[in-house]
Amino acid sequence: MPKTRPLISVVADAETMSEAIKGLIKSLGYTVEAFASAEEFLNSRKVRRTACLVTDVQMPGMTGLELHRHLVGSGNKIPTILITAYPDDNARERALGDGVACYLSKPFDENDLLACIRSSLPSEGP
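RESULT FIELD:
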């Protein structure tokens, strides 16, 4: 029986960024789903299947950090990678203190994102 590939969920309101990240992750053999908002992700059936979450910090409605906190509070401890166009050392420290796996500033190197994803997943990646 073939192994199910880990699902990486991408939550970002900017479609260009979402599509670029989705394409990169897909090219490495992962299954990937994109969502335009935290609420759309939370209302999907993909939450429980998600092995790693890549989300923008600044989004209308719920922010990426609020999404992470909501997931943890509801018992879904999904490794979360936050991406921001507005780097802030205090916000970074708070996020990492809350258990976020990685905090990347845009523009980021795709290898940094991939390293974050790989370190967040169990060793049986693609």
